[in-house]
Amino acid sequence: MARIFLDTNFLIDAIHRKPEQEILTLLENHDIYISSLSFHIYCYIFKIKIPDKRVSEQKDKFNIIDFSDDILEVALSGPTIDFEDNVQLHSGAEAEADIFLTSDQNLLAMKFFGKTKLVQKIS
Questions:
Q1: DSSP characters for 31-83?
Q2: Does the first or last residue of the chain, that is N or C, have fewer Cβ atoms within 10 Å of its Cβ?
Q3: Rg of the Cα trace of the chain?
Q4: pLDDT of residue 95
Q5: Domain containing residue 74
Q6: What superkingdom heads the lineage (predicted)?
Q7: Which of the 8 DSSP states describes residue 100?
Q8: What is the predicted pLDDT for the residue at 47?
Q9: CA-to-CA distance for 99 and 118, rounded, in angstroms?
Q10: 105-111: long-range contacts (C-beta < 8 A, 24 or more apart)?
Q11: How many domains does the chain have?
Q12: How far, in whole angstroms, is CA 93 from its chain's centroid?
């Protein structure tokens, strides 16, 4: 069983764009982590009105990494020029993730962030 962190784009695919069951079934035997900011971004992009039963049910499927002052501090220093990407990367590190799932080509080019492997799919 691996510790897997979902980048925001992957979370949105898992709960909104692609058949939810397809992605969640692939992740079934793993510990899945996301940043609390990912739900903020998801609700903002899709203009979801709160309270929303589906969002609450989705949230319960994941371990949530809080956006803390510590994550803010390290995200402001990199490793990329994109603040949101940095928040996601450092949130994955906070989760001690083995794998960071993303479809962001710039992040995938990094291959690793610390001990965390950045990939587009689970092999």
A1: EEEEEHHHHHHHHHHTT--SS-HHHHHHHTTSEEEP--HHHHHHHTT-SSS-H
A2: C
A3: 14
A4: 98
A5: 3-119
A6: Bacteria
A7: E
A8: 96
A9: 6
A10: 106/80, 106/82, 107/7, 107/80, 110/79
A11: 1
A12: 11
CA–CA dist 7, 33 (Å, integer): 9
| Residue positions counted in the chain | 123
Structure tokens at 76: 């402001």
Q: What is the pLDDT of residues 66-111, one digit of tens each?
A: 999 999 999 999 999 999 999 999 999 999 999 999 999 999 999 9
Give the tokens for residue 54. Answer: 């589906």
Do the beta carbons of residue 58 and residue 15 sit within 8 Å?
A: yes
In this prediction, residue 72 carries a pLDDT of 98
